[in-house]
Amino acid sequence: MFTFDSVTHRYLHGTRQVRSVTGMIKAAGLLGPAAQFYSKEAAERGTRVHRACLDFDLGLVPDIQHEEAMYLNSYAQWSGLCRPIWTEMEQPKHSERFNFAGTADRVGHIRSWGMDNKPVIVDLKTGGASSWHGIQLALYDVLYDEIPPMIRRRLVLHLKKNGGIPQVVEYHDLSDYTTAYMILAGEHNDIGHNDFEPQTES
């Protein structure tokens, strides 16, 4: 049975740990400078903001402090403009075929913003842009395989601390998928590297 331990941030298949998306990217040496800037405080802030955004999408009342509530306001503004329909929200998933797991922030369709109801996979960030984000989304696109890879549009929403409309970065480079499949097939994925899944850009 596949489970996710939210305390240790480990994915398990029975008692066996399963390699994770960010863990594989880290093991492949693709995080670059981001790994240096990881802090517990930033990770905890990202977790709280993600939880608040999920509560918002579920129609619940988010429990979040004023300063961090600005990130939620940023997400709410984008949601109001783009009118997304989410089919997956923070739902851990395991690929039997490729033996890896991860949790995409949002999977679904966007009705407005010139997207014409196109399928999308979306990641929410409270930090800045990094080159590995496109690879991260490509791996999520492979993982959530109800739609074949490379059909969904891959978006990162960089939520604004001042509550403004997020910066939206779309990743078009199909070589991200080449890298993703190389990671899945390669020798970078020693499970020892996946003991900790940093959330440097959450």
For the largest sheet, list the strands in their spatial order.
4-7-8-9-10
Estimated radius of gyration: 16 Å
Question: What portion of residues is helical?
Answer: 25-40%
**Beta strand count:** 10
CATH architectural type: Alpha-Beta Complex
> How can the largest sheet be summarized?
5 strands, mixed
Number of domains: 1
Low-confidence stretches: 189-201
Find the CATH topology: Lambda Exonuclease, Chain A
Features:
single chain, alpha+beta, five-stranded mixed β-sheet, three-stranded antiparallel β-sheet, 10 strands, globular
Can you summarize this structure?
32% of the residues lie in helices and 23% in strands.
How are the elements arranged and paired?
Layout: E1 2-5, E2 10-13, E3 16-18, H1 21-27, H2 40-57, H3 66-82, E4 84-89, E5 93-95, E6 100-102, E7 106-110, E8 118-125, H4 133-143, E9 153-158, E10 167-171, H5 175-185
Parallel strand pairs: 8-9
Antiparallel strand pairs: 1-2, 2-3, 4-7, 5-6, 7-8, 9-10
